[in-house]
Amino acid sequence: MSVAGGREFFVIAEGQSEERVLKVLVAPVLRPNGVHLKPQLLQTSRGYAGGGINFDRLARHVHNVSRSAPEAYLGTFFDLYALDSSIPGVADVGKLATPQAKAAHVEQALHRSLVAALGLRPDRLLVHVQPYELEGLFFSDVAGLSGAVPEWAGALDDLERVRAGVDTPEHINDGYDTKPSARLSSLLKPRYRKTTHAPLIAERIGLSAIELACPHFAQWIGRLRRLP
User: What local confidence, expressed as pLDDT, does residue 228 receive?
Assistant: First the structure.
């Protein structure tokens, strides 16, 4: 669908924290080209949206949006961590060496499957899967992260040790106790709360620092900047 002075971009987000971070970080990137970001959550049950992503539910949602807004761009913003096995490509990621390669493999497989199943024009669909979690992006600037809430300043040394132990923030792994969100929950007091703190941290750190540190996320942002 075209809107006054531009075009819509519907991005299906995994949850409310991703939805809010998209508005803080990604929407400003699109505005100069007249592309208007509209994050959406999958309806997973009556009266509830977010999480519970599987391929059938996703395909149904994308189909409905693409029919109601035939000129709009469509996209996803999912975590690679715990992504449902029905999502194309997920079953193969164990064979790949890097988080970025794993995410790219799933993106390509999901893109192919949605295009084939729904008859979409390929350039309308901009799939993104983040290795391994949204919260990994926040380790791009641990000083900014620790400064987002005054009481978190004492965690700076611990956050720096986590960051120093990996090649990029996107390498912080997919273990239940060691995934990025678990690290934040264990290190930050008051405790990290996704929907409250994620957009606050994202705004504090800013997009430039995240693009410098997180190559897979930066690649997606680069594609969005080139949207007509």
Answer: 85
Q: Where are the beta strands (DSSP E) in the chain?
A: 2-3, 6-13, 35-41, 43-45, 48-49, 73-79, 125-126, 129-130
Secondary structure (3-state) at 193: coil
Other beta carbons within 10 Å of 181: 20
Task: Please determine, for residue 2, whether its predicted confidence score (pLDDT) is greater than 60.
Answer: no
Say if residue 91 is in the same domain as residue 138: no
Determine the pLDDT at residue 49: 61
Q: Are residues 25 and 55 in the same domain?
A: yes
pLDDT (tens digit per residue) in 197-216: 999 999 999 999 999 999 99
Taking the CA of residue 119 as centre, how many other CA atoms within 13 Å lie in the half-sphere pointing to its CB?
Answer: 3
Element (H, E) at 216: helix 215-225
The two tokens of residue 102 are: 């794993």
Average pLDDT over the chain, rounded to an integer? 95
CA–CA separation, 32 vs 227, rounded Å? 10
Nearest Cα neighbor of 198 from 131, 145, 143 is: 145
One-letter amino acid at 197 equals: H
> Which pLDDT score, from 0 to 100, does residue 46 have?
54
Q: Are residues 114 and 218 in the same domain?
A: yes
Give the C-alpha separation, 116 to 59, whole Å: 11
Q: pTM (2 decimals)?
A: 0.95
CATH code for the domain of 82: 3.40.50
- pLDDT, position 151: 98
Query: What is the residue range of 174's domain?
Result: 134-206
Number of domains in the chain: 2
Torsion of CA 140, 141, 145, 150, to 10 degrees: 180
